[in-house]
Structure prediction request, 529 residues.
Amino acid sequence: MLKRSTLLLAGAAAAALSAMPAAAQQKAPLTILRVIDADRYDPIRSTATAAAEVMYMLADTLVTVDFDMKTIKPGLAESWTVSPDGKTYTFKIRKDVKFCDGRPMTIDDVVYSLKRWVDPANKSPVSFRAGPVKDIRAEGDSTLIYELKEPYSDLMFQLALSFASVVDKDTVEKLGQNFGVQGFNGTGPYCWSKWTPRQELVLKKNPHYNWGPSIYKNPKPQIDEVVWKVIPESNTLMAAIQAKQADVTYYMPYIALDTMQRIPGMTVQRQDNYIYDVFMGFKVDKPVVKDKAIREAANMAVDKEAIAKAIYFGKGRSLPSLLNPAVVDYDKDSAKIMPKHDPKAAAKLLEDAGWKMGGDGIREKDGEKASFTVYGIRNSDNPRISEAMQADLRKVGIDMKIQLWDATVAWGKLATQEFDAFLMSYPYVTATEAMSLYFRSQQAPTPNRMNWKNPKTDELLRSASMATDADKRKQALAEVQTQLTEANVWVPLSSQPLWVVATDRVEGVRAHGLYGAGLYKGLDIKLKR
Prediction:
């Protein structure tokens, strides 16, 4: 007898078959399903993971990251050296690369793209990732000099991100602000064909491409056409994959993964090295949450393990520490001092700190209620996460009010000083990247929405960033992880898992996950029919 969930899926699949365009049933393209589109596909102008996951197919970077999320490998740069003082990186650039339009890529294209990234006139929201650049220049026809004002230990990882993609100057200047909206010309394995925002983006194989990174078995794309199709409704997406109207997704609802694993021919795989964490951060200068006792009690009251199980249906993990244990330069010792789930201890901590229980079940201190407001993006997970937290906190006498917004509004709301705490999820590769992004004083008020301005934190992060010795970098990062853990600036919640589901029409799929890109370059993937 079929299980009820399977019957529901079959019914949804039938509905989806009639609702999906006929093009989705063609055999020619590889169809990848996702739940959201990007605002644009210009590498220096969008921070969206929805942009990055496509950008890696459209363009290349100097270096790449292996599937372990730790090892840097060659990309457009065949090799590189770093000066003893850590300020000058010299890259040997490949000479066999062509843009989608057939024009050979030159060293000038690389210089142009990287300078465009860091040019203040372009106001790129991610230019800080390039480090303290002094100059980027060419020497001869294949040598790139990337010169820094001071050492920047995270540079190689940042140069692997989509923001550092090499693009065609002529196309950029022709399209202006519409580059990445009306067209694109890069050196990636696939080329821009057409984009219908919030519906689909169609890519064609780059006929010249044969320089794929060594992390793949085949350096050439094996598929003529790739369609990135947006299906915001999770049941419809799930049904479309089950009905084999599409080929691959890594946006499958977690509740459906067990069902997918039982379907003959369906491939379901997890990327264990994937890092995309969820946390709640406190604005430490706001009433109520500026009290460390409130923040520490919140960390103790919230049942993170239960939330992870409920949200991810056993397919995700709760976070035991400020940062993900898989990240480069993770500090195990700081994880040991992260408050454990203990509601009774949380209540006692609040009581001892002067927060007395009121008649309405909400604690008070000096005439002020233990109440705060959290902002966040309304997606498939945040309503359930915030409501579970709200219930846990209420049990110890803390009132958490919830305001979730559609993504089109949320980012504007999160740029204000209206809220006391916020829910956020984010991808990262190194501890330096994560903490420099969120905790440096100069990053306030966004993305340092906590308004955490601490000279010791700034000094430690600067030391880590400038370290040319790995042990010294790790020591500085260990100290700052300990400091922030003790301050309870965050409630680390869970690590979102990356599961890739593929039908039996596809082979060679392997989950990657750099900056949320589950398929990365999409190489090695073939269609059987």
About this structure: The chain has a mean pLDDT of 93.
